[in-house]
């Protein structure tokens, strides 16, 4: 096994995925639209919820923390929760209702109309994310997909941010760019007066 060859190939593929993203004007516009959707929800006193499995669970809590704490500059916290972090809730729902209901149950209990739900799935086929999107839609909660090119999720949501790859790690590495850009635009649009000159 040639580690340096592996590193070069991985970096080449992740750069190619980002270049495809940059060349896709419609995708960039949808990312701007997703930020505008979050701004509208937050200005109306609503919140942004994130959910995903595995690496996407980590992305969910990373991005919710960015909203509540800070991203590029100091400003008031923004309401956001990751539905992936409370082990008591996750084990109770998983044990009593099944893993497929992990996120939809939390959306039903804690979501309100006008919130934004961001479902993150590289395959686009994680059932607990699909069910959470369906639950959100039934409650008037806006839905955003962070996905790849496959699965059911890309055709389900109000706004679809599809990383242009079919390979989980490159999709994930693009998703965290989506999330950082989303946080950065929301912060700028909502708190321009807090930005250091
Ligand atoms: O982080 C990784 C792979 O990079 C894994 O933990 C990965 O997130 C898990 O296999 C997830 O269960 C995949 O779910 P999904 O992205 O297909 O919805
Ligand atoms: Zn991973």
Question: In short, what is this structure?
Answer:
Helix content is 54%, strand content 12%.
- Total of DSSP H or I helical runs spanning 4+ residues: 7
Average pLDDT, rounded to a whole number, is 98
Strands in their spatial order, largest beta sheet: 2-1-3-4-5
**Structure ligands:** D-altro-hept-2-ulose 7-phosphate, zinc ion
Task: Count the E strands.
Answer: 5
The percent range for strand residues is 5-15%
Largest sheet: 5 strands, parallel
Total separate domains: 1
Helix content: 40-55%
What would the CATH topology be?
A: Rossmann fold
Tell me the series of helices and strands, N- to C-terminal: HHEHEHHEHEEH
Shape: globular
The chain-level structural class is alpha/beta
Regarding CATH, which class? Alpha Beta
CATH architecture: 3-Layer(aba) Sandwich
Runs with pLDDT <50, length 5+?
A: none
**CATH homologous superfamily descriptor:** Glucose-6-phosphate isomerase like protein, domain 1
Family: Belongs to the SIS family. GmhA subfamily.
Organism: Alteromonas lipolytica
Function: Catalyzes the isomerization of sedoheptulose 7-phosphate in D-glycero-D-manno-heptose 7-phosphate.
Pfam families: SIS_2
């Amino acid at each position: 096994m040639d580690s340096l060859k592996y590193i070069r190939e991985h970096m080449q593929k992740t750069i190619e995925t980002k270049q495809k993203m940059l060349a896709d004007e419609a995708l960039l516009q949808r990312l701007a639209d997703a930020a505008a959707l979050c701004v509208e929800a937050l200005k109306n006193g609503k919140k942004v919820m994130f959910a995903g499995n595995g690496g996407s669970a980590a992305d969910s809590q990373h991005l919710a923390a960015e909203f509540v704490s800070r991203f590029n500059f100091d400003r008031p916290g923004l309401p956001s929760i990751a539905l992936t972090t409370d082990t008591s809730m996750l084990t109770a729902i998983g044990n009593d209702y099944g893993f497929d209901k992990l996120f939809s149950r939390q959306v039903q209990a804690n979501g309100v109309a006008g919130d934004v739900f961001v479902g993150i799935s590289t395959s686009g086929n994680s059932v607990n994310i699909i069910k959470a999107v369906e639950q959100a839609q039934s409650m008037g909660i806006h839905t955003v997909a962070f996905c790849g090119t496959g699965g059911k999720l890309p055709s389900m949501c109000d706004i679809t941010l599809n990383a242009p790859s079919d390979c989980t790690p490159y999709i994930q590495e693009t998703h965290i760019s989506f999330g950082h850009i989303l946080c950065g635009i929301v912060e700028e649009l909502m708190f321009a007066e807090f930005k250091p000159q």
